[in-house]
Amino acid sequence: MAPMARSVGERVVRAGAEGSLRIGELAERTGASPRSLRYYEQQGLLRADRDTNGYRRYGLDAPATVGRIRELLATGLNTDAIRELLPCAQGGPGLVFCDRSCSAVERQMAQLDAEIAELARRREALATYAHVMRQRRDEDRALAAMALRSA
Fold it and tell me: Which contiguous run of DSSP H or E holds residue 58?
């Protein structure tokens, strides 16, 4: 009996197919959890075929793809931006120039600049608050010392 395809666009490969990795093997090679790998697949970042038993099978290029996904996630990019960038992420660290890579990276940098400015504003507000608290503490100590001396 021939195996049936699970869904449109999903191939069925024979169980134990050479040149493919099961989810546990891919997780072990990359340090990503199986849950993360399933999430990457759900987000359209990683492709898996199914074997006749229904298990996920990843191509031998999957460890490099997962490494690139994790590298891009570490920069703060979200999965939508990473999906846009993956075609530009070929071989070695960094990105190959393409229109998508430049615009996505520039958008992320602008967002980070805005977040840094907001964090600086919040830090300054906290520093002012801390300064006032220290002044009040020092004033309270001075008043307490004066009260003890006059008693």
Answer: strand 56-59
Question: Left, alpha or beta for 16 (phi > 0: left; psi -120 to 50: alpha)?
Answer: left
Tell me the C-alpha distance between 18 and 65, whole Å. Answer: 19
Mean pLDDT of the chain: 85
- In sequence order, which residues have a C-beta less than 8 Å from that of residue 34 and are 6 or more positions away? 23, 24, 27
Query: What is the model's pLDDT at position 150?
Result: 86
Would you state the structure tokens that stand for residue 53, as one six-digit string? 């038993």
Q: How far apart (Å, rounded) are the C-alpha atoms in residues 84 and 123? A: 34
Helix 62-74 to helix 23-30 angle (10° resolution) is 50
At 117-142, the pLDDT tens digits run 999 999 999 999 999 999 999 999 99
d(CA 36, CA 142): 58
Q: What is the pTM of this model?
A: 0.66
